[in-house]
Design goal:
2 copies of one chain form a homodimer. Helices cover about 40% and strands about 20% of the residues of chain A. By secondary structure, chain A is an alpha+beta fold. Chains A and B meet through helix 3 and helix 4 of A and helix 3 and helix 4 of B.
Chain lengths: ~270, ~270
DNA sequence: CGGGGGATTGACGTAGCTCAACCCGAGTGG
DNA sequence: CCACTCGGGTTGAGCTACGTCAATCCCCCG
């Protein structure tokens, strides 16, 4: 079930200069701090959606303000409840955004990819993080303070508008999730979640679309508001129908159409 | 309570000139189109959060662009799937924002009050409304086109930032809802929803905090991702515990603390 | 080779859905 | 003024999707 596949080298996120053997599709080459060179940093920012309106020279100027930092897979980047001191942009790696509930279970709101941002959006209202962020893979994070971000918005109104559009998009997607949780059974929520992940984190391979982040059944359960066992049963069923494949902490989507039918089906 | 622009009688925003008998706390005096005079319109916009950064003269100029329109209780203001041609601000009344699902059930995302906005945020991506808006009471709505709105954001960067903060706030609240739906039983979701409504639409009376919008059990069910019968049972229980009161399509919160305990309790 | 973390599977319990009957208060029309 | 109706609300009696608990498996790593 597991095969060695060579990593395809995407220029904008490739911090890894050496080719190495991989065991699993999601075993990425390690992302090392020293790979976040100023040049690379600028390249990443240039491709970051909310900075898209900026010119090359503006990007260069803005890049100065960002602090780069490296996180190993599994470590906490920010914790809900802590003072919110940074707005972070993902340069490389994937990050799990979650809310811990009072009774100990975790709710995963999203898995973010390079170019996405998280953290404190503005110093209004909440001066603390409302979500916990965990490095799902090794990560390279660029961060500025909320004050710097605000001043950035003031200096470049186009950035404010771009950010507004991004946040509006996030709100849309949150609303879709609310609809899912309110109205659809777990099976459909899992199918919808897989489709969404495939679209945002998927890499096409001969075998199907590999979701490029290590994802456990528990993660999937926390994303769909279900329990591990339930998700496991559903994934077994999906595998039986040859809709998905995968192994320990990784998933490949084999049949997009089939999953889409899953999502729609109950609309009988 | 700062929120309440229209229903308490303040000289500059009063749409209702006569005092009349009320049957129920939510039987509001009718809001008539002719009450949305230019002066009143400007007064409303002055108090609208996302225009807060503007000066008096700017407000006056901006006010010119808004089209005012009246909707009777129960009528559709916009329908999900239609071409998105307007961004709307509520001048008076309350509006129910919902997503109809393929299989016919409705998911209510929010109930909005005067000063809140809805509709098309930007002409990016989705050119259609993703939500349906229904006048919960008689309503006076001010609207501009997405193009006008965008130009407004460009002319007044402070407005863009204010809007960003508002949308970020909505995202926060959507995330809270996702947490609720994922992790907490219906009883707690109902309690949390009532608290939220009380805070945003509540008017203090001798008897408790009256939620100033007609709200059926069905509405409450659609807001909590539950079924009418379940919500009805829970509300009966809450009434038995003297946490809430009310009648046909109206609710009064009697015991805030008690409800808060309800929300927290299961965190045993 | 042993240990541990993830995944799977089964047996069983229950929160909340479904279906169905019934109530009640407010308009409406005679 | 009453009678009728109708939309909303309540309550009960099953049913089921999903959670809970527990055993087992199976990689993967030391």
């Amino acid at each position: 079930m597991e095969r060695d596949i060579t990593h395809d080298v995407r220029p904008e996120t490739c911090f890894n200069t050496r080719m190495e053997q991989r065991r699993r599709p999601t075993d990425h080459l390690p992302i090392r701090p020293q790979h976040c060179t100023p040049t690379v940093l600028r390249a990443v920012l240039r491709r970051t959606p909310f900075l898209a309106p900026l010119s090359e020279t503006d990007i260069a100027r803005v890049a100065e303000e960002f602090q780069q930092r490296h996180y190993e897979a599994g470590t906490v980047i920010q914790r809900a409840g802590e003072m919110a001191t940074r707005l972070a942009v993902i340069a490389a790696g994937t990050v799990k955004i979650m809310r811990p509930t009072l009774d100990g279970q975790d709710v995963v709101l999203d898995i973010l990819a390079p170019g996405d941002f998280f953290g404190s959006l503005a110093q209004l209202g909440e001066p603390v993080y409302t979500e916990t962020a965990i490095a799902q893979t090794d990560c390279c994070i660029l961060a500025i303070t909320p004050e710097q971000f605000r001043s950035l918005l003031e200096r470049y109104p186009a950035v404010a508008i771009a950010t507004l559009e991004l946040v509006a998009g996030r709100l849309q997607s949150a609303n879709r999730t609310i609809e899912q949780l309110s109205a659809h059974p777990v099976e459909q929520r899992v199918a919808a979640t897989l489709l969404n992940l495939a679209e945002r984190l998927g890499r096409r391979e001969e075998d199907g679309i590999v979701i490029e982040t290590p994802l456990s059944r528990q993660d999937l359960a926390d994303m769909t508001g279900a329990k591990v066992e339930t998700v496991s049963r559903i994934m077994s069923e999906f595998r039986r129908l040859d809709l998905v494949g995968g192994g320990r902490r990784w998933i490949v989507v084999r049949d997009l159409e089939g999953l889409r039918d899953m999502v729609t089906e109950a609309a009988v």
